[in-house]
Amino acid sequence: MWSLALVVLVVFPLIVTNPTYTAIAVSTLLFMACTTSWNMFSGYSGYVSLGSAIFYGCGAYTMALVSSHAHMAGGGAQFWLVPLAGLVAMVVAVPVGAIALRVRRHTFVVITIALFFVFQTLAINASFTGGSAGISLPLIPWLFNYYNLPFYYVALGMVVFATLLSAGVRRSRFGLQLLAIRDDEDRALGLGVRVTAVKLTGFTMSAFTIGMAGAVYAMFIGQIYPQFVFDPTFDITVALMAFLGGFGTLLGPLLGGLILEASQQYLVLSFSNGSLYLILFGVLFLLVILFMPQGIVGGVSQWWALRALKREMVSMTDPEAVGANP
Amino acid sequence: MATILEAQGVSRSFGGVKALAGCSLSVDKGSITGLIGPNGSGKTTLFNVMTGYVKPDTGTVSFEGNDVTNARPNKIFALGVGRTFQLTRIFARISVIENMLVATQRDESWLRGLTRSKSSKSELDAAMEWLDFVGLTRLASMQAGSLSYGQRKLLELAYVLVADPDVVLLDEPAGGVNLTLINEISEKILALNKGGKTFLIVEHNMEFVMKICDKVTVMHQGCDLVTGTPGEVRSNPAVLDAYLGSSDGEVSETVGHG
Questions:
Q1: Which of A8, A28, A228, B85 is the most exposed place for a label (fewest CB within 10 A)?
Q2: Is some CB atom of chain B closer than 8 A to the CB atom of A194?
Q3: Cα–Cα distance between B143 and A294 in angstroms, integer?
C-alpha cells in the first residue's frame, strides 16, 4: 500500500501538469513532511510543541540569507543549501528545547508559543533579516510550466525521508522511550530512561525536516517576510494536521497534511472568499474531536480492534483468571 | 548480614509538614525487610527519597556503600534499585511486552537507543520469561491499558524485575488485590528472595508482612520507631500506641502519603 501511494505521488505531476495544481501539491507535500517530522517528537512523546514555525522560519532565512549574500545564481544549486538549513534549525532547536523542556505538558505548550513569538519579533526587528520588508532570493529562471516540478520532487523526497525516519524512530529503543515518556514520564525515569536527554534529542531531530521544508518554501516563493515564515498559523496547522490524521501514528500526519492542505488551497481557489475555508475547517475539527478524538487513523483502527475483540469474546473464558492462575 | 541499602537521619518537609524527621533504615543484603506504620507516617516519602524521586533536606542514602543521596531516579535504577508505586503505574498505551522492554537496558547510554532496535533476542526472551513468571504471557501483545488492576500489579512487578535489580522496593504489593493473588505474590517474592534478591516492602496487610518478612521497621510521624523481627514488633507496646493512637497519633493521619 505504501509503495502504491508512492507511485501515485511520483507520477502525479506528470499527469496533472496544470501549474496551479502542482503548486498546491508542492505546499501539500511540504506540510506532510513537516507534520510527519513534528509528530516524530510531539506525537510519540505527547509533548505538543506549538513552536515549529521557529524551525520553519530559521530554515527559510538560512536559505534566503545564504543564497542572496553569496550572490548565488538562482536554480538547482540552491537545493544544496536545504540540508544546511535543516542543520541550522537543529542548532536553534537545542537551546529552544533546553528551555521549553524544563517544564512538562501544558506548560511546555505555552513556553513553545512564547519562544516562537520571541523569534518572530527578532526576525521583524533584526537588521540582517531585512525586517518587515522581507528578503528577495535569487530569481530562478525556469520556464513557468516546469517551474514547480523540481520543487515537487524535492518535497516528495523530504516526505519519504521524514516518514522513513519516523518509522525508524518508532522501531528503535529511543522511540520506545519516547512512548514511555508519553504514558508516564516519572515511571520511565524510574526504569532507567534518561528522560531529559531523550526528549531533547527527539525535539532537535524533529527540527531538521521542518527547517529543510522552510528552506524549500523560501526558494519556491522567491521572497520571504518574517510574518509569513514565522507564522503562528503554521504552528497550529501542523499540530491540527497531526491530530486530524492520527496523533502519534505513522500514517496519520501524512493523511492529515494531505487532506487539510490540499482542501484548504482548493477551497481558497474555488471560492474567492478567502475565509470560507476557516469556517469549514472549524466544523471539520468539531466533528473530528467529537466523533474521532484519536484522529482518522486512531478512530479507524479502534473500530477495527473493537470488531476483532467482539469476535474473540465469543471464544474467551474469564479474563480475570489470567493473573490468578498462570 | 551486610547492609545493601541504607538511609541515615533523613528529613524532608513539604511546606510546614515534616514528612520525614530524622528517619533511618537499613536493608540487609538478601533479606525481606518490611516497612509498616500508620497512614502519613512517611513510608512512601522514604521510598521516594531512597529511589531519587524526592531529595532529602538532610541525611544520606547509600547503596552498597556508595552515597546516592542526590542521584537521579534513572541513575539509582541503573545501579540496581528497582521500585513499584503505591498507585500502580504502567505505560497504558503501549503493549505489555513493550512495557517490559522499556526496562531491559537499565544502564545503556541514551545515544545507543537511537541506533538499535527496541529489543534484542535475549531481551525479548528475558521479558517473556518474566511475563511467564507472573502469568501474563498470554497478554503480551495486548495494550497494557486494557489490563485489570491485579494484572497491572503483576506487570509492574515483572518489568521492575526484568532489569535484574539487586534490591526491589515494593509499595503496597498487596493493596487492593484479592486473596488468591496476595498469596501468589508472596510466594513469588519468597521464591525470588531464595534466588538472592533483596526486598523492601511497604504494606498495610499485616498478615502478609508477618508471613514473609525477616525484619520489620515500624515508622511513626516521620521517624523509625522500632526495628525487629515480626514477632518482636508485634508485641512492642510503642507499636500498639502508634497504630491505635495514644497521644497525638491522629495528627499525622491527615498528612496523607506525601
A1: A8
A2: yes
A3: 16
